[in-house]
Amino acid sequence: MEIKKSAVAGTVESSDIMVTVAPNPEEKIAIELDSSVEKQYGEQIRKLIAETLKRLDVSAAKVTAVDKGALDCTIQARTLTAVHRASEVGEYNWKEIDSWNA
């Protein structure tokens, strides 16, 4: 999936994460994380964002995530939504996405 513009999903409220996805002219994935639980879960958050991007066939993007203790399902949902907004995709294959967690 091609990232065409910058897009945001989520908030900076407690137990949420704000994910911003933007095009990356360097043609790679770059993830910047600011998290209140960085020491405990930073590696897991980055891994989950990267896995979600891979499943969506995103090969070039700048991702900025501001985390306030979000659960994995919220991190995945916010990343998914931001990517779809940034790629200007209007339709989702929910059955495929739902199978990721099966």
Automatic annotation (TrEMBL):
<comment type="function">
    <text>Covalent carrier of the coenzyme of citrate lyase.</text>
</comment>
<comment type="similarity">
    <text>Belongs to the CitD family.</text>
</comment>
<keyword id="KW-0597">Phosphoprotein</keyword>
<dbReference type="GO" id="GO:0005737">
    <property type="term" value="C:cytoplasm"/>
</dbReference>
<feature type="modified residue" description="O-(phosphoribosyl dephospho-coenzyme A)serine">
    <location>
        <position position="14"/>
    </location>
</feature>
<dbReference type="Pfam" id="PF06857">
    <property type="entry name" value="ACP"/>
</dbReference>
<keyword id="KW-0456">Lyase</keyword>
<dbReference type="GO" id="GO:0016829">
    <property type="term" value="F:lyase activity"/>
</dbReference>
<comment type="subunit">
    <text>Oligomer with a subunit composition of (alpha,beta,gamma)6.</text>
</comment>
<protein>
    <recommendedName>
        <fullName>Citrate lyase acyl carrier protein</fullName>
    </recommendedName>
</protein>
<dbReference type="InterPro" id="IPR023439">
    <property type="entry name" value="Mal_deCO2ase/Cit_lyase_ACP"/>
</dbReference>
<keyword id="KW-0963">Cytoplasm</keyword>
<dbReference type="InterPro" id="IPR006495">
    <property type="entry name" value="CitD"/>
</dbReference>
